[in-house]
Sequence to fold (631 residues):
Amino acid sequence: MTDAPHIPVARRLLANRMFLATCITCTGLAVCVLAVLIVSIMMDGVHRLSPDFIANFASRKPDQAGIRAPLVGSIWVCAICALTALPVGVGTAIYLEEFAKRSRLTELIRINISNLSGVPSIVYGIIGLTAFSRFFGWRAGSEPIELGNPESLLYLRLPFGSSVLAGGLTLALVVLPIVIVASQEAIRAVPNSLRQGALALGSTRWQMVSRITLPASLPMVMTGAILAMSRAIGEAAPILVLGAPLMVLETPANLMSEFTVLPMQIFNWAGRAKASFQEIAAAAIIVQLAVLMSFNALAILVRQRLQTPFQ
Amino acid sequence: MSLQAAAAITSAARGTPIPRSSRDRSERVVKSVLLSFSLLSIVTTFSIVAVLGIEAWGFFTGFPDKPGIGLIPFLTGTEWSPLLGGEQKFGVLPLVCGTVLVTVIAGAFALPIGLVTAIFLSEYAPPRLRVVLKSALEVLAGVPTVVYGFFALAVITPALQRVSDAFGTYNALSAGLAVGIMILPIVCSLSEDALRAVPQSLRDGSSALGGTKFDTSVKVVLPAALSGIMASFLLALTRAIGETMIVALAAGGLAQMTMNPASQVQTMTGFIVAIFTGDAQANSVEYASSYAVAATLFIMTLALTLTGSAILKRYREEYE
Fold:
């Protein structure tokens, strides 16, 4: 800091003004990109939106094609993903924040989670394919084992193959690090005095967590969970690796049904040269964005409604 | 509030007198369930390493009926033609080259713009504008990547073609720009977090010494937040390297050693998509090669993630 070069005030003020101009240009550019993105998709796709587009199955003829199967498939996959990733993710966060002592193992788990969040989703797709669809090559080449009645909801086939269950579990792997990190932050935000109060009154750790820490952090945990689910519902790469069929003409009946999801359908249509397929791709994108917007709105609502007096 | 909490505990303690031993037992059960949940993340990593490692090893050392490719020819080969009817060639460099080209374009677009926008948001923008801009960025961050792929094909590529005839339907620049738009919100919001974490006293000190807003932001706040900014850059680049749907739609399907942004390229992720959407047999060499490519991709992203956390740990400026 000694002998800093002397810069005349006028030049410094000029630099100041020019930098502000650069700032506004860059920010404006970012906003413009968002505007162009939304406007161009609207212009391409909005005239294709109709009740039929939601209610119809996919078709070779773009005029009759709809998104019924991918829309329902997305809901199934998202539900399976939520039912598996949320308990495991929140549980991991609780363990790390409330139970774990500083040890090599917990340090390893922490580093591991930060590394897992950097793994590309297509790699998770390959792992999901190997682990859930094929059970690591178990019974390769022979018929899968069937459990239960194919008509019932709880019908299972081992290995899972390209089923909606395999898809949901694979997406659970993708979002697990996000859920864990968000829940950890939420639990950490609970003031320590509450914990000390609970422990001083003689509660065990788990009583403290289940009655004090978790309720207090619930709004933030749920916000993180909803955002993680909106990530899951937009993922196409892992589902693509699992081998979702190009055209699905029925909605899932049970966990072993074949399925597709909205982003996959968008990918299939967007990749075709014909302009009419581009238009229905854009229409499907509008539906997808509408779903995501309602997820975001839900997250904001939860944050405001469940605001506990603890924070 | 703590009254409420205290009441909850007392009523629990008084209402259901649980014997000590059973309380301890359920405590132990809960703890081991939670521990097993957190061990699942270790199992996941272990499966990633094991699956990719074993399959890639098979690809390198050979199959019962075919010779292996070998690690050195794989890592140094400059030709990648796994699907052609003629001689199959498995040199990964063209795929790495395609990934690097797309990532460099994305970074050149998103890192400067993202950083300057972050400085604007953190240092200049009035609070209400900041809230509006941050929510716009949140919208951008939530858009699925396949949408950016569509945007690249439907908007960016036609615009590029109007500028120059050199651009084909598939080109690296269009895909790179779309990836850049995708990582822009990441750079922006993480860098902004880092900038805002710098204590106000530093800004006040700079202003008191006669620094302009520019001096304060760029010469004081920016260096103080540098480790966080670098970490945000690395995280964004990691996402760019692993991005799949955009390059699968817009970058093309021809693996070649080129740094020409107008030509089509195939990235590592693009190749994996091509294998799993194509009709490669599950026990063929080209199918096995996708695991070797995925292993390469995994190692590259892992290296970037580790570097990012090392930078954060090592160079964090502590002001407390």
Notes: Chain A has two domains: 1-37, 51-305. Chain A touches chain B through 96 residues (CB under 8 Å). The first strand of chain A starts at residue 145 and ends at 147. The first helix of chain A runs from residue 9 to 45.
